[in-house]
Fold each of these.
Amino acid sequence: MLLEDQGKRLFRAHGIRVPEGRTIATAEQVPEAAGPVMVKALIPAGGRGKGGGVRRASGTAEARAAASALLGARVSGHTVRSVLVEEAVTVSREMYLSVSIDRSLGLPIIIASGSGGVDIELVGGPAFHRWTVHPFLGIREFHVRELTAALKLEGRESAVGDLLRSLWAVFTSLDCELVEVNPLILAADGELVAADAKVVINDDSLFRHPDLELPEPDGDGIEAAARSEGIVFVPLDGDIGVIANGAGLTMATMDALSAHGGRTGAFMDLGGTDDPARVRRAFELMAASGQKVVLINIFGAMTKCDTVAQGLLDALGGLDRSPATVVRLRGANEERAREMLLAKGIVAFPELEDAVREAVDRGAGK
Amino acid sequence: MIIERDTRVIVQGITGHQGRYHTRAMIDFGTRVVAGVTPGKGGELVDGVPVYDSVREAADEQGADMSVVFVPPRGAADSALEALDAGVRTVVIVTEHVPVHDAMDVIQYARLKRARVIGPNCPGIASPGRGKAGIMPNPIFTEGAVGVVSRSGTLTYEVVSSLSRAGLGQSTCLGIGGDPVVGTSFVDALRMFEDDGRTEKVVLIGEIGGTAEEEAAEFIRQKMTKPVVAYIAGLTAPPGRKMGHAGALVHRGRGTTRSKIEALEAAGASVATDPWSIAALVARAGRR
């Protein structure tokens, strides 16, 4: 997800009008304001308004105070490192407009609402108009006519058309999952202004956009370290770390722990690997995250059981202290892996149910 | 269903590490792998399978009903489009991390060609005793009458393996893929299982994110006569976090495990609370 100021620079480059503004990192940099301004926390997350990350200031002094309150604060789980100070547009009416992907239909979809004050949770509800867009056709004149009518912008069809085609250009040229303007403002001067810009780029497409500077993802050191090795690590609030191969299997293991009274302290998806060193690194990261118990659940396929056993033994050999470790193995090279672990005194369970019970017994419990 | 003994399968990206390994495994499973495609490697042989420079050549020389794509993300969509353009009826895209706009293009082109896409980011399809297109491990399967459809990979293998240990063989196992946009949906799969003479019962393995399971529930309620046993992973996953799969994300309060379980139960499916209780539920499930 891009920060709002990045999104707005993109919008401006595509001819969409956005409020005049400046990005600053210290309160001293707040520019002299001629009138009311908006001070907005630049974080890669939605729901900033509800989280207190958007403030209105009547002049320079208030804007400085707002900026200094926001800078360094935590908003919606992110630390605010910069804020956007921009002119407060005189609003005639607020609207909603986005282009995203409808997962069920597998098609791009325009969602719009002509009334303002949109609660993001309601997007897609009955007050919203929707049009799928075929990727081979793109935006056509009828889309523009219908959107103009839906937004009650009669007489402004050419402005609506320019805006929609520009949003579509951003959506397609940057491989977006979402391009959202909330609110889209009909300003007192009659122009359409994008008062916000939310642009979410598809992670799998980033190789096509090497010049994009994406905000640093949040998360502690372990999460970032895991990410840099292609391992998915999500910290949770229990005390049993789960390492499994595959997202579905890892989630199923967490659910089973919970159903038996345990609490998962971290989710780790090893993914597919044939490298024991990667398994070793994964276990070391999990051990460093302070779990009381680590439950390893492997169904050997692309990742073989003996690869995991080797990585685990290497990790345990190199660690001074390690959490209680419960291992469950099935699938490719299961027997060999079981023997490798048994030689070091580790019994690997064949049944997931037994491993889950053992892990719960060793954890803090309910 | 989808793959039969006489289905002519080609492998795109056959000369890569994954392509070679899984070509061997597909042949061992009994699949009729007739050709491979890697541009620039035409004339080579991989495990006795002739390699061609293009799908069109492979199709002209050997016939091609189905293609399995092992091409890396940058070229996966192009390979799939090439296969569709050459008239291949079913394209299985195993590749993970395919750009989502590419996936939409491929799926829409398949619709125009009245062809089927499975995936992307999927383990493919296996019909024990008939053939396999994809990467599911051979030893977990036994022939039987249970149809399995899933968004997961290893979790599916886990469930299939437990079914086999319980003496419940499979008619077809279909991995539809973990991405937000996929070519074959749960509903498509359920419709095929309902019509498939070899399938008596169906196991559906879903996970958090999207509304595919809710749509499946609606189809079960309206159209399915065969019993369905479901399991949904992710009950304890925190909202707003991507749990490994790009599609496994609870967004704006939609796609929670609860809503899926409730919809499936209301539709008459039995929902397992643990992966290991699926086999027992399948054994018990009777015709409705």
Note: Chain B touches chain A through 62 residues (CB under 8 Å).
Amino acid sequence: MSDPTLSAQPGLHPYGPAIDASPVVVFRNVSIAFDGPPVLHDVSFSVAPGETRILLGPAGVGKSVLLKLANGLLRPDAGSILLFGEEISHMPEEQLFPLRTRTGMVFQEGALFDSLTVRDNVAYQLIQEQVPDNEIDRRVRDALRFVELEETFDLYPASLSGGMRRRVAIARALIRQPEFLLYDSPTGGLDPLTSATIIELIAKERDVYHTPSIMVTHRIQDAFLLCNNRFDPQQGGMVPFPKGETDPNTTFLMLEEGRLIFDGSLHELIRSENPFVREFLE
Amino acid sequence: MAIDAIEKTAKNLILTVQDYALFAWRAFTNLYRPPIYWPEFLIQADIIGFGSLSIVILTGLSTGGVLALQSSATLAAFGATAITGQFVSLTMIRELGPILTGVMVSGRNASSMASELGSMVVTEQIDAMRALGVDPVRKLVTPRIAATICMLFFLTIVSDACGIAGGGLVTVFMNHQNGTQYLDMTWEHLHYPDIIQGLVKPLFFGYILSSIGCFYGMRTTGGTQGVGRSTIQAVVWSSVFIIFVDFLLTQVLLTLMPPL
């Protein structure tokens, strides 16, 4: 991914936010239910170009559902969702596929295809587009280098650890340089050290390529780590912002029982008087 | 409470039928629209066709043998043992070949499709495929349906041939009848309507067993337990549906092409 030729893909914006300043995704009064009470109720927010939204909330409040709504994997019962300016709430599945190729999604457990090698998993979209094999190999190696897993090229997902699988999933999501990224609990179930590695990769994508994203997590420490640090390409790792500063493009959303109860910056989150926010932070 | 339960079950049943009809229609129309995933089709044809060959040969051989054994006693009472060949070949080609092959392949492959796709659903691989901009129905379901229809057709021919061979072996070596006479009788009384009837059925059965297997796989919920449930439902419903459709098809085909 560090290869500049890779970044010269048409329609991409690897070194800064998109010129078009309209939001990448907009939720307007979105509600959804599955055979019971609403999972999400009247949720409205947007993601601006270059913005990273961290979606917080305990397990079972509808965070993953919200993420799947954002790229049309689920459809809302009410409200509207705009992805790249197009209304997707009632868009036929066939028309959604080309839109989804402009997004990248990292699933909770990686969701790697277990019958394919790491190379074929990462190259899945490129293989469908019938990109020549040598071009695929080069881009897969670049993507794996980005997540520091080049040596796994020929391995099958079953032989990888949980953390490695998430990193391969990140490589798969990034291979086509998406315009919008969705991370579904990328650190869930991982040890603190591996979690920090994953957060560093997300910070790297945020600070090097400025790709707008939504990251779902219930781990407040991961959210703070992402917000309080920036990726330094010279040092090849994360460095903390000076005291009192945070990443201005990283903001927070919080869900409580399907309702969006907070939308703001880290400072606003810390100062929030909402009892649920206070309880969650403490 | 009882009425509520009945209402819920009825609604679920109607919804399932509706979902299946939509799914089956979408998979069917995909058969004629590009892109067609030929590598997936060939892989599935190998798994379904060559993978099922041994069970189809064994089933055909023993069914033909049993038919010859059972019929010979009855036919002997009328002094008509000479028509054993005719009896075996007509029964195998018109009825037992297609239906036994359909049910056997359903037991092997509808279950495998449901469990494979079900596992992909519960591990979010299907969602990942959709998120990567690939239609899982087109990529996973349509090649399986096309391969099953194609291979069940040929497997039924193999089953028919094995059935006739099995009947011949029993006739010659156990019933001690004339082998040439058996073969003459299998051939002489076989007409095109019989063959057409026997070869139309596997096209329907292949579509039924693969679409039901994939349908239950793709709507799996509830983790690994759900995969088990989907597998059972796929095998049960595809077998039942094959037998039911066989009855309807036989009725229609007999009306269109009465036996000569």
Note: The mean pLDDT of chain A is 88.
